[in-house]
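SAMPLE LOG
Freezer: B-3
Tube label: C17
Construct: single chain, 422 aa
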Amino acid sequence: MLKNVSVEGLFGYLTYGLNFSKLQSNVALIHGPNGSGKTTVFKMIEAISKEEFEIFFKTPFTKFTIQTDYSLLVVEKVDDNQIIFNNDYILNRNDFEKFDKMDLDEVNRFLHGCGAIRLGPRSYEYEGKRYRHTELLELLKQEDTQEDVYPEYISSLANEINILYIGSERLIKKEERKVVENRKKLKEIVQMYENRYAIISKELDARFPKRIITEGRNILGTIDSEDIAFRLQQLSKKRIQLTKRGILSNDNSNELIPADEIKSDDISDNQYMKQYLNFYIEDNEKKLNEFNDLLEKIDAFETIINGYFVNKKILFSKNEGYTITLTRGLLKGQEIPLDRLSSGEQHFLVLFFELIFNSESNQIVLIDEPEISLHVSWQINMVDGLITIANLGDHQFVLATHSPQILRNHRGKVLTVGYEDE
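STRUCTURE (predicted):
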């Protein structure tokens, strides 16, 4: 996790440090006036995580330092064409600008040499996907620069700080509303979990007969009948939960051994039945446990969104991703088109979807201006929602905000930057 970040000479006049370790919290709030470089510092941190260093050439600064639990990296700017890492490794701007100097004919020749198929004046197919020539050039540029071998201490730090940056422009991506895009993405996420469930089910079912024969003799006499009955009940509850969510179909649910009909007394004297049920339960626990993470995320998403939305309710749907319906009035129960939601509601949906479904465990999440379009009451309670998510995935959240409402109840989490008296 981030411990300290500092910058010197940012834009030629700003010097400050962010001491996250003193907060003793997994949520930090950075507060400062416009022009204090909060967004730029976020993008510098993200650039180190991705090992993409163009921003350090484009931004005026003299020294940037980042310290984590295990690493320390110092980036110094020699001039507009050269930066140096830990007073050891020099990187030149020309390494990043060779693509920018190509004219259109050179771009076309380069893309063709990389195996791209020209579809039109400015469109190409590459590795089965279609790109505009500028998009493909940027992709190949990143691949080319990433082939450079950086010192181990740079790569080590980049791997340590797994960054998710959520910018202030989060609603729009490639001219498509992300609130709609995320609903499609949730369907894909559910499909991914179902695929994993199908794979592990096939593997376990194939090994089941052999396990009964080869491993069963080693556990005879050690299986508790009351434990078997209890675990069957728990398994039944999990299947019912997944069936209600639509993740498992009713047909799949019917495959379950009828737990209510099996009592501990019925199997107490039947060692082979207990052996069979023990392996059956173990295998089905492994299968259904594939959905544990998904269920936690769906529950958290619904709980947080429904805790904020007024007169509306979000509900997970396997086929739709999620739907929003009215909860009062003459149109109660009617679904609301996503583009009819207010700007604040859409921002809130996008923000918390990104945090819950697109983040990874032990990730550092940088959020720029989380208050955008949000009602004051939502801003006041936002940090509490983030703390819930932080605990869900063991994240570290760093927010750059101007909102006094977000800061109001969390003064102990605030780091100020860009004020003259600092």
